[in-house]
Specification:
The protein has about 60 residues and is of the alpha+beta class. Helix content is about 35%, strand content about 25%. The protein has one domain (about 5-55).
Length: about 60
Amino acid sequence: VITATTFTGPFNCLGWPAISLPAGRSATGLPLAIQLVARPWEEPALLRAAHAAEGALR
């Protein structure tokens, strides 16, 4: 099981919805991101939060 989930995010394994959003670049030009996570079955709240965060990050 561990081998099969090596590259799977822990929240995906747990069934918690998660989304990653670009958050700009570091001082050296590397891409930055944030990850938002919600409780199981709370996808609508996660999408609302992601929409708000995306607007704030622009």
